[in-house]
Amino acid sequence: MDRNKVCIITLPKIIDERGNLSFFQNNQQIPFDIKRTYWIYDVPGGEVRGGHAFRTQQEFIVALSGAFDVVLHDGKDEQRFHLNRSYYGLYVPNKIWRQMDNFSTNSLALIVSDRNYEEADYIRDFSEFNIIING
Ligand code: TYD
After folding, report:
1. Ligand 1 in reach of 3 Cβ (< 6 A)
2. Global pTM value
């Protein structure tokens, strides 16, 4: 799946015996300016988050702790990404259906976006998403 450049981005890792450090900043490691940060935590076993696409916003998702899967659908193909390290993340462009599942105990998902929260930017119905992508 490479429509709009879905990709895993490996972040810098400053290895230090006092503890390692990773980072990302606007338009360097990730291809957009960060406008909003949110995180998902305390997810009960078996729960699913997401299940939507965005009309315009882009996101970058990192498993800061633990592990979970991000399942992407571009209107044709589906691909599952397993995130389980804090030094890489998944870039999700707009108009990609995404779901997050398979959360491990105590997992922490960090998400940064280039837009403020706006419900109107969500596409929450998969058949509407399909029409937008495939006509
Ligand atoms: P939502 O993005 O629908 O959660 P998910 O797709 O991960 O299941 O967000 C759930 C609710 O949280 C949503 O109805 C409104 C609120 N919310 C905000 O107020 N601001 C935010 O930045 C986000 C991401 C959600």
Report:
1. no
2. 0.96
